[in-house]
Amino acid sequence: MGLDDITRRVSAAEIAAGRAPGSVTLIAVSKLQPPGRVEAVLAQGHAVYGENYVQEAQAKWPAWSAAHPGVSVHMIGPLQSNKARAAVALFDAIHTLDRVTLARKLAAQMAEQGRRPQVFVQVNTGDEPQKAGILADELPGFLALCAELELAPSGLMCIPPEGRDPVPHFRLLRRLAETHGLSGLSMGMSADFEAAIAEGATHVRVGSAIFGARAVG
Ligand SMILES: *Cc1c(COP(=O)(O)O)cnc(C)c1O
Question: What one GO molecular function would you report for this record (predicted)?
Answer without folding.
Answer: pyridoxal phosphate binding
